[in-house]
Specification:
Structural class: alpha/beta
Number of strands: 4
CATH topology of the largest domain: Spore Coat Polysaccharide Biosynthesis Protein SpsA, Chain A
Strand order of the largest sheet: 3-2-1-4
Oligomer: single chain
CATH architecture of the largest domain: Alpha-Beta Complex
Number of domains: 2
Shape: globular
């Protein structure tokens, strides 16, 4: 198994369905397993996963374990060389998972990688920087981050 995708879910049925469909549509070239860890949802999320995505491994927690503990449940159940932790409200584009795995294969000193994150309108979403400062926070809020990259 090359890629394990772990998605932590709690009462986000619609987003989860879109996310899972995007993973299937992305059709990575590498072997992939998808694991959904449900944190005791009450909106029918786990039932939707079981009905529409029978090849997805569904883990139903009896209680909401929170973000870290919930993700750890999925990581422990994974078998892949690479583990991707996804939020349920994202879409994966074709080639994304393979590109990340290829990069990690080619750069053995790198322990973690992340994709470019886009907003709904496909503009770049700032998701990292060297160290948060008052200046870069101000630039982000004031819209100056594009001028002062």
């Amino acid at each position: 198994m090359d890629i394990s995708v772990v998605i932590l879910s709690w009462n986000d049925k619609h987003y989860l369905e879109v996310c899972l469909q995007s993973l299937l549509d992305a059709r990575p070239l590498r072997m992939m397993e998808i694991i959904v860890v449900d944190n005791a949802s009450t909106d029918g999320s786990p039932e939707m996963v079981a009905a529409l995505f029978p090849n997805v491994k569904l883990i139903r927690n009896a209680e909401n374990l929170g973000f870290s503990r919930g993700n750890n449940v999925g990581v422990k159940a994974s078998r892949g060389k690479y583990v991707y932790l996804l939020n349920s409200d994202i879409k994966i584009f074709v080639g994304c998972l393979d590109a990340l795995a290829d990069y990690l294969d080619q750069n053995s000193r790198v322990g973690m990688a992340g994709p470019r994150i886009l907003n709904r309108d496909l503009t770049h979403q700032s998701s990292c920087r060297r160290f948060p400062t008052l200046w870069n926070n101000f630039c982000e809020v004031a819209g100056l981050a594009k001028v002062f990259a």
